[in-house]
Design a protein that fits this description.
Elements (H helix, E strand, L loop, with lengths): L1 H13 L15 H9 L6 H23 L3 E2 L6 H17 L4 H20 L14 H23 L4 H26 L5 H16 L13 H18 L11 E2 L1 H42 L1
Helix pairs in contact: 2-10, 3-4, 3-10, 4-5, 5-10, 6-7, 6-9, 6-10, 7-8, 8-9, 9-10
């Protein structure tokens, strides 16, 4: 009798406990994992915060340079103060625990604000209007805001049909900028540096057409977005090597303007991309799920 009890006790110890079904974590289905890959809920949330800190540091450095006389002579006296203000605003947006949508909206507004005061000859983009031509400046700003945002959206939602529609709209909005760059390229009265830069700008816009490839790939959207963000800024910086530069426009006026342009375009385009993600993520996820169920 005692032996039977001891055997029962041993068996009770050796028997593994089984958790009730209510305590088990739900299994991760392959279709759910694929849907998260094809249609992420909040794409690039953490990397964006890192990028915003980098942009804020760049704007603060630019403000420091402006305070010591570097930049366009046409800039207003409060340009450096505005640069510091925008830097602090972006840093707070990146570091404070804002919701995804609120951070995206504030980031977009800050980027557009930098562009707006730049057209007025103030802030980090104070030298934007040095060469005149408001229509050309507006076309440039429109292209480097909408096209990178659409390319990033296309890269993160490659199976979503509306991603190509948004890319098509952004490409159409970028055509005036590409056409103006083509005119500069063909103008033999313009310096060689400016003409080459204009040609590269037009090519950068054309490369976004790779985003219309099949939904099985990202179309290298992030690569083309970086190209569209960087090349127009390099174009402005390269003018420092052309006859346009000189003591009458300011010390390193074009390179400082290029830095401000990159900062403003990153903030505006990345914020716009995340706003688009917030608006279409649910529909993209439903579409990806329906696509998987129909296979």
């Amino acid at each position: 009798m005692a032996e039977d009890i001891s055997n029962d006790s041993a068996g009770a110890v050796d028997t593994p406990s089984i958790a009730p079904d209510s305590q088990r974590p739900p299994p991760v289905l392959a279709s759910e994992a694929l849907r998260d890959e094809l249609a992420p809920h909040q794409p690039a949330a953490k990397p964006t915060r890192i990028w915003l800190v980098c942009v804020a540091l760049s704007l603060a450095s630019l403000g420091f340079a402006q305070r010591h006389g570097v930049g366009a002579l046409s800039q207003t006296a409060d340009s450096s103060a505005l640069s510091f203000l925008f830097a602090a605003s972006l840093a707070a947006t990146a570091l404070l625990p804002f919701p995804y949508g609120l951070r995206a909206g504030v980031t977009t507004l800050i980027g557009l604000a930098v562009m707006g005061v730049g057209l007025a000859g103030a802030g980090p983009l104070a030298g934007l209007a040095m060469d005149g031509g408001l229509s050309g400046d507006l076309a440039r700003l429109l292209a480097i805001t909408t096209l990178p945002a659409a390319l990033l959206f296309r890269a993160h939602y490659r199976a979503y049909r509306r991603a190509r529609v948004l890319l098509g709209i952004a490409f159409a909005l970028s055509l005036p900028f590409a056409a103006l760059q083509g005119v500069v390229l063909l103008d033999i009265s313009v310096s060689g540096v400016v003409r080459i830069a204009a040609g590269v700008n037009a090519v950068a816009v054309a490369c976004s057409l790779f985003g219309f490839v099949g939904g099985q790939t990202t179309g290298a959207g992030a690569v083309w977005a970086a190209l569209v963000l960087g090349v127009p800024a390099i174009d402005i910086a390269a003018r420092e090597l052309s006859p346009l530069a000189g003591p009458d426009v300011g010390i390193l006026a074009y390179p400082t303007t290029a830095v401000g342009l990159v900062c403003a375009s990153i903030a505006a385009s990345v914020g716009l991309f995340q706003l688009a993600a917030l608006a279409f993520a649910a529909d993209a996820r439903n579409q990806s799920l329906n696509t998987e169920e129909s296979k």
